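A note from the maintainers: we've had questions about how concatenated examples are separated. There is no special marker in the raw files; a new sequence line simply starts the next protein. For clarity in this README we add a label.
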Amino acid sequence: QVQLVQSGGGLVQAGGSLNLSCTASGSISNIQLMGWYRQVGDKEREAVARQTSRGMTDYSESVEGRFTIAKDSAKSTQYLLMTNLKPEDTAIYYCFTFTDITTWGQGTQVTVSS
C-alpha cells in the first residue's frame, strides 16, 4: 500500500504561482503512474497532469504550458508547479499514485482571485 500526504496550495492572485507537493510512503517501488487531478464542487475530478515511472508526462489542454509535474525520487515526492494561474484553476487538487490500485492524497485547496 502507498500513503500520500499533500502540502502547499492556498490563495493567490491571477497570474501568480503556487507549488503543490505530495510525499509518498509505503510500497512506492510499485508505483507505475502518478499525478494530479482537481475537482470543483460536485463536478467530476479532472485530470491535470500525469507522469509515468519512466518519466513520460502529459497534461490537460487547460494547463499545458503553465503547469509542470516533477518528482524528486530521493524524497519520494512529486510536485505540481503552477504558473500564470487563472481564476478557473480554482479547485481542490488531489495527487494520486497507481500501483494495482489508485491511492489519493487528502486534497488541498487552490484559490485564484481575479
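[label: protein 2]
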Amino acid sequence: QVQLVESGGGLVQAGGSRRLSCVASGSIFSIRAMAWYRQAPGKQRELVASITMIGRTNVADSVKGRFTISRDKNTMYLQMNSLKPEDTGVYYCNADWRTFASWGQGTQVTVSS
C-alpha cells in the first residue's frame, strides 16, 4: 500500500505564496503518478496539477503560471504563488499505484482578500 501525508496548509493573504508537501511511504516504487487536487466548500474536487514518475507535469489552466508541481524522491511539492481567494480549499495529495489510488487526509489552504 501507499500512504500519503500532506503538510504546509494555512492562512495566507492574497498575493502571497505557500508550499505544500506530500510525503509518500509504503510501496513507493509502485507509484506511477502523483497529483494535487483541491476541494472548495460546496464544490467538487478538482485536479490542480499532476506529475509522473518520469517528471512529466500537467497543471490546470486556473493555476497555470502561478502553481508549480515538483517531486524529489518520495516527496511531492506544490509551490503556490500569487494566491487568490478562489484558491481557498482543502488540498489533497493523490497517488496512482498499480490499479489503486491513495489519498492523503488533506490540508486546508485559506487565502484572505
